[in-house]
Amino acid sequence: MGLMRTALLKASQSEWLAQQVRGRRFAQRASRRFMPGEDVEAALAAADRLRERRIPTLITLLGEAISEPREAERVADEYLDVLDRIEQRDLPMQLSVKLTQLGLDVSRDICIEQLARIAARAGETGNYVCIDMEASPYVDATLEVFRAVHGAQTNLGICLQAYLYRTADDLEALLPLDAPIRLVKGAYNEPPQLAYPAKRDVDANFFKLAQRLLTRSRPETAPHAFGTHDPRLIMRVQDFAAGAGVAKDAYEIQMLYGIRRDDQYRLAARGYLVRTLISYGRHWFPWYMRRLAERPANLLFVAKSLLR
Ligand code: FDA
Predict the structure, then answer these.
(1) pTM of this prediction?
(2) Is 195 in the pocket of ligand 1 (CB under 6 A)?
(3) Is the CB of 150 under 6 A from ligand 1?
(4) 193: buried, middle or exposed (CB in 10 Å: 19+, 13-18, 0-12)?
(5) Of 57, 98, 156, 250, which residue has the fewest beta carbons closer than 10 angstroms?
(6) Cα-to-centroid distance, 152 and ligand 1 (Å)
(7) Partners of 156 in the beta sheet?
């Protein structure tokens, strides 16, 4: 892993740095590259614009690792409100949630309770919820909570990370549930005992896992998704799918708001299912630093925002 990437991922965990940066105008300007605004209405307006290009969306409230049960309830309440707003506007927008923001560090029961509230309300409005996958110490707990809620709420999917050695086994264990899976490379600072350190090995494992997902039939609730901006990998996935007779609309390609926007438009125009994940909220610092770590060249944008 590159030194810059490691340094940025370490910095992403610093609460002190987060406090220094959050209120600064230049940092807010720089963060706009990856999020339309801190307010939910900014996210919904961006989703409206993407809908015009036939690109459905996912929305996530930024924040992680809360430590008070009340906070988990408040976050879940906010998601319920977002679901109402989505329904009012009839937006093709799903939810993407982080379990540490729903109390995973506080108590598993609280987390299950809050996730179940969100999934139940999403189910009532015909919507769908995907659980993000966080750093490796949370993987077992995340899978457990997913299974606990998926039993009653099948409109629930989960993200798996191709950089972890364990993911092939996790995928096999999940497949019989017929739940939609979002495959990503993985965004955290993981040790070589747990994760492939070389990007080419991560890419190879991503493709192997993608093939496995594509040879399964599409889950009933939502298609499996490939969350990546990597044009070569996307092309390999598409070629494999076409060769295996998998229709273009039987799987999704998901990307983050603001990244490779032209590719998103182009793929959607060519009839692929593309979905954009839009983030909002005040607690964007760790998430933003992970975006910088994925592409340290992004630091140039930060420098430009600082100079402006
Ligand atoms: P890669 O890093 O190889 O980049 C390929 C190309 O994409 C780059 O050359 C560049 O052009 C562009 N690009 C990628 N990242 C960029 C950036 N930050 N800024 C500018 N350009 C960039 N991770 C996780 O651990 N848990 C999760 O739950 C999720 N969820 C998730 C949902 C969705 C919809 C997406 C798209 C991604 C995630 N991720 C995630 C993040 C994921 O693990 C990974 O860190 C990023 O997608 C970056 O890797 P790529 O696959 O895009 O390829």
Answers:
(1) 0.94
(2) no
(3) no
(4) exposed
(5) 250
(6) 31
(7) 129
